[in-house]
């Protein structure tokens, strides 16, 4: 891309999301300039453009990008060295939700380190996706045997994750403060009409809730990756409504990175009344947090992807979890957060966002239908949050 844009000055628009409906996105109009300053070394520079003079739209959160960007140097061994600089002025400190205030007002939410870590993770995933060699030894054989099938499933999963990210934007968000529960931030709900390619057709209701838990990111990540927690013997503690209290079994596994938690799974719930339904799941973890996204998918659809067929037309409706450190500093005098190891960005706790979507399969567009669907997905999110807290012995936690 840098080569294609060499010497060009581009006007661009960007929204930066923290992946929680509690935090409004940062919006930027900016000029971008890319140039190869010497053989094997590229510079990409961004600086904000005062679009308010040309546009009547007025954002309530003013964000201004001072000269920022990156330097990319070819190391001639198939790798690159990247130096990133973020220099941003933001006037939103008093408007940030209390759960995310420490994270956003520090450098962990939008700083250069997050860009670098995200770039590392996505580059690693791309390398695994394009690999022509046989899959790593810890991947399950016999289900996905062809490289084309592996890439098709990875493309489908990548689209699933992108759809999940877009859903958390919560456009057309509805707020129901009377649904807020103790020790929780409440539930944000969005209703939208879906008719795009690769998405189920109909009215989709999305709901999300964010909360604080006194556990490390790695502990939460391991909890959601554990097959047993989806359907515990104690039904009141199982969190996965897709399994309906039944055991689940991973039938295929694709590695997306060197960390064993960075993977794509095809999961089979042992549901006697719906043997045709599988679950596609992607999970990833890095030093700043983790992500678990999953969606139901019928057997013929996943079979076509496994066979190497184009998966872009397969409809998919994801739900999932976003986990991040809370950004609170162990040393209040210095204001610096600890970043000692993966999943343990601080000693205090983590922020968890739970998000679900349901498809309203009806031709009616009455207000009663919408409210019934909103009530259903709100109950789904609220009950799941309570089951997660109970399973983690955090029911009485005060954020």
Identify the overall geometry. globular
Q: How many whole angstroms does the radius of gyration measure?
A: 22 Å
Structural class: alpha+beta
Give the ordered list of helices and strands: EEEEEEEHHHEEEHHEEEEHEEH
What is the arithmetic mean of pLDDT? Answer: 80
Q: Which strands sit side by side, in order, in the main sheet?
A: 8-9-10-16-15-14-13-12-11
In whole angstroms, how far apart are the ends? 44 Å
What summary fits the major beta sheet?
Answer: 9 strands, antiparallel
- How much helix is in the residues? 10-25%
What is the number of helical segments per DSSP (H or I, 4+ residues)? Answer: 7
Number of strands: 16
Low-confidence stretches: 177-184, 331-346
Task: Estimate the strand proportion.
Answer: 25-35%
Task: Kindly describe this structure.
The chain has 399 residues and is an alpha+beta fold. It is built from 7 helices and 16 strands. A 9-stranded antiparallel β-sheet has the order 8-9-10-16-15-14-13-12-11, with helices on both faces. A hairpin with a 2-residue loop joins strand 13 and strand 14 (289-298). Helix 3 crosses helix 6. The longest helix is centred in the C-terminal third of the chain and has 25 residues, at 367-391. The protein is globular, with a radius of gyration of 22 Å. The N and C termini lie far apart (44 Å). Mean pLDDT is 80; it is low at 177-184 and 331-346.
């Amino acid at each position: 891309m840098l080569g294609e844009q060499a010497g060009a000055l581009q006007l661009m628009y960007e929204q930066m999301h923290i992946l929680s409906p509690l935090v409004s996105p940062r919006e930027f109009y900016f000029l971008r300039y890319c140039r190869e300053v010497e053989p094997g070394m590229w510079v990409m520079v961004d600086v904000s453009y005062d679009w308010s003079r040309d546009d009547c739209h007025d954002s309530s959160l003013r964000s201004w990008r001072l000269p920022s960007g990156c330097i990319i140097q070819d190391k001639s061994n198939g790798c690159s060295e990247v130096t990133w600089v973020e220099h941003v002025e933001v006037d939103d400190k008093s408007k940030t939700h209390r759960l995310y205030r420490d994270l956003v007002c520090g450098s962990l939410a939008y700083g250069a380190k997050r860009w670098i870590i995200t770039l590392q993770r996505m580059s690693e995933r791309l390398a695994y996706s394009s690999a022509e060699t046989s899959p790593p030894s810890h991947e399950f054989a016999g289900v996905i045997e062809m490289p084309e099938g592996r890439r098709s499933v990875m493309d489908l999963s990548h689209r699933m994750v992108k759809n999940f990210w877009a859903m958390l934007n919560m456009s057309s968000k509805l707020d129901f403060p009377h649904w807020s529960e103790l020790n929780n931030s409440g539930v944000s709900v969005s209703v939208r009409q879906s008719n795009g390619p690769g998405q189920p057709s109909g009215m989709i209701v999305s709901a999300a809730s964010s909360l604080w838990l006194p556990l490390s990111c790695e502990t939460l990540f391991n909890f959601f990756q554990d097959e047993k927690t989806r359907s515990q013997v104690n039904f009141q503690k199982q969190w996965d409504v897709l399994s309906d209290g039944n055991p689940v079994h991973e039938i295929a596994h694709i590695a997306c990175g060197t960390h064993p938690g960075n993977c794509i799974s095809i999961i089979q719930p042992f549901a006697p009344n719906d043997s045709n339904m599988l679950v596609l799941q992607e999970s990833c973890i890095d030093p700043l947090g983790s992500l678990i996204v999953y969606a139901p998918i019928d057997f013929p659809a996943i079979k076509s992807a496994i066979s190497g067929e184009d998966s872009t037309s397969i409809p998919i409706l994801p739900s999932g979890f976003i986990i991040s450190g809370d950004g609170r500093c162990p040393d209040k005098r210095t204001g610096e957060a600890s970043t000692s190891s993966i999943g343990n960005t601080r000693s205090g706790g983590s922020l968890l966002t739970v998000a679900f979507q349901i498809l309203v399969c009806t031709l009616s567009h009455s207000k009663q239908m919408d409210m019934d669907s909103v009530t259903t997905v709100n109950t789904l999110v609220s009950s799941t949050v309570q089951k997660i807290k109970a399973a983690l012995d955090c029911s009485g936690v005060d954020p």
